[in-house]
Amino acid sequence: MPRFLAVYTMKPEDFASFRKLTKAEQDAIDTVGVARWAAWEEKNAASILDRGGMVGKTTRITRDGIAKAFNPLCGYLVVEAETADAAARLFEDHPHITVFPGDGVDIMPFVT
Question: Where in the sequence is the domain holding 22, given as residue range(s)?
Fold first, then answer.
């Protein structure tokens, strides 16, 4: 069955707005979101090949050297599904975009 990389994205301004909430407000969102995330993973366990994880700040290496960089990526996982559309449908109710300030989930097929 085809495998897909699912990449969680988040706009920096959305993350900044979340961090401006009080600690109690952030904790309340985290409590709901973490529980729903676990439920989502349990519901879709048969399709998840690698739970991946959340990622931090980016360092980019180019011919010119090493530098800090920015991209909207904040996490990933690997799923399998019949098609890219089927993989995308797995994420329609994902807490990254329904509870947390996530911007979206990008689905990309592995081609090698």
Answer: 3-109
